[in-house]
Design a protein that fits this description.
This protein has about 240 residues and is mainly alpha-helical. It has 10 helices and no strands. It is globular.
Length: about 240
Amino acid sequence: MTLSMKRVFAILQKDYKDMSRNLYVSTTLLMPIVLSVIYGRMGAGSIDTYYLVFNMTFVLVTAYVQASLIAEEKEKNTLRGLMLSPASTLEIFCGKNLLSFLATVLIVTVCMALQEYNPQNMPAVIAALFLSVLFYLGLGTLIGLFTKSVMEASVAVLPFFAIFSFGSYVTLFIEQYPFLSVLEALPNLQLLELAKRVEAGAGFADTAGHLGIILAWAVAIHILAAFVYKKRMVDE
């Protein structure tokens, strides 16, 4: 399968124009930065607060923007035309993911600087953040495929916002309710645990288990998104 970067960038350019016209979506991007400024000024620098902001960014920027871009195509009845265009599924997926990916990288970098977060093992943390972005891109694609408008996508993303942004608080109850330990496999908690181990001096190899679990989540959700996308091509 060939990949035409010209088509990928054409989709990126169109998505950028669509997002810049939607003030509700574009202003959502500012929330993690505002939180980082507040936490930075409060001097509340800890692994938990850093990753609360990062996980929030992944849901609000990566997943929500991705879902909104796809839902907007459906709202305007242009997704079907895109599916039937000469662009391959790979080109459409790459083009649709690229804007959310770039926006996420920019905002996470800004948030790290504002909170003065300097991990002990930068390669391991960057690898974990990258795999997490891949997972949330797949999540956003799925939400977009299952919703019919930007407003629906805004509502549909809320449960995921609660689970992935504040899910780390579940760990406080695991000792009392052992069955909740299964939630420790969630990608946001794996990311947080990896960061804590890195701060404790863990090397890259020591974090391989966490990276493997996040990668498995990313692969699984993209396979599911591709399946739903193909099904939509037939159904719609």
